[in-house]
Amino acid sequence: LYALGHKSLAVNISDIAAMGGTPAYLLLSLGIPARFQTDDVDEFYRGIRSLASKSGIALVGGDMSVAKSLLISACLIGQTRYRPVSRAGARIGDDIYVTGTVGDSALALKLLKHKSPKLTLPGGKFLLSRHHRPLARLDAGVILARERLARAMIDVSDGLVQDLGHICTASRIGAIIFEEMLPLSRAYRALVGRDGMRHALAGGEDYELLFCARRRDRSRIERLQERINVPITRIGTCVPRPNRITVLNSKGRRYSYRAAGYDHFRRL
User: N or C, which end of the chain has less CB nearby within 10 Å?
Assistant: First the structure.
C-alpha cells in the first residue's frame, strides 16, 4: 500500500512534467473497503506523503468514504512560469527523443503475473522498482520547456508507440522509430527473453518523457543530459503524416509487433 500511494501520486506528477510544469496542490478522494484497517490507510498515505514532500506538493483536500473496492481519485494541480508544452508542436524533420529507459515496468508486470523466478535474479529488483515506484522526470520537463527545446511532449504511460501516436495526431505528422536506438536497461536485456522489443514499444507505465525537438538543438539536448543526470536518447524522426508510425529494425525493414499499447476505453 505504501508503493500504491507513491505510484498514485507519481503518475499524476508525470502528467504535469510532460507539459513542463511544476506540481503544487493535490486533491485526493478515496473509497475504502470495510475490510481495510487503519494501519492500511496510514500506509497508503505514507507513500503519498513521502513523494509529496520531495516534490513540493501540498495535500489540500479531497474526500473519503466506504466502498466495495478500493477507489483512488487524485487531482494534481500544477503551474508553470513558461509556456506549457502541448502535443501539437512537432514538425516534419524534428527529432524524436525519450528520457531514461523503456519497457522496464511492463516487463516487471508480466513477470509478476506469471510469478516468475526471474524476479529473484540480478536486475529483478530494478524492474520491480520501476513498476511499483516510478519517478516522474520533473527537472527534465521544466528545462525542456524553459529553454524551448521540446516542441511537443507527452509521458510514456500507455506505451511508447501509442503515446507517440497522440503527438502525431495533434501535430498532424507521422513518425519513424529506429528499433535499435530504443534505450533498454541492462535488466530488461537480461530478463526479457523471447519478448524482444514488445514491452519497450507497447508496454507503458515507464513515465519517461517522449518529446520532439529541432535538429539544430541536438548538441544542446546532449549537454542537457549532464545537467539533469538522466539519459536522453534520440530514437526517431518526424515525417509526413501519411506514413503514420513506422518502426524500422537494424536492417531498415519494418519491425513487426502486435500490441498497440493500453487503451482505457477498449472494453466499453
Answer: C
What sign results for the dihedral spanned by CA atoms 265, 51, 229, 87?
positive
Which DSSP string corresponds to 175-211? EEEEGGGS---HHHHHH-GGGTTHHHHHT-----EEE
pLDDT of residue 133: 96
Q: Collect all residues with Cβ–Cβ distance below 8 Å to 9 and sequence separation of at least 6.
A: 26, 47, 48, 51, 52, 55, 57, 74, 76
Task: Please name the residues in contact with 94: beta carbons below 8 A apart, sequence gap of 6 or more.
Answer: 151, 152, 212, 213, 214, 215, 237, 238
The partner residues of 90 in beta bridges, in order of sequence, read none
Q: What residues form DSSP beta bridges with 26?
A: 59, 76
Question: What is the dihedral angle through the alpha carbons of 224, 226, 231, 234, rounded to the nearest 10 degrees?
Answer: 40
Rounded Cα gap, residues 112 and 166, in angstroms: 29
Q: How far is CA 236 from CA 97, 109, 182, in A?
A: 7, 27, 9
Q: Is 229 helix (H, G, I), strand (E, B) or coil?
A: coil
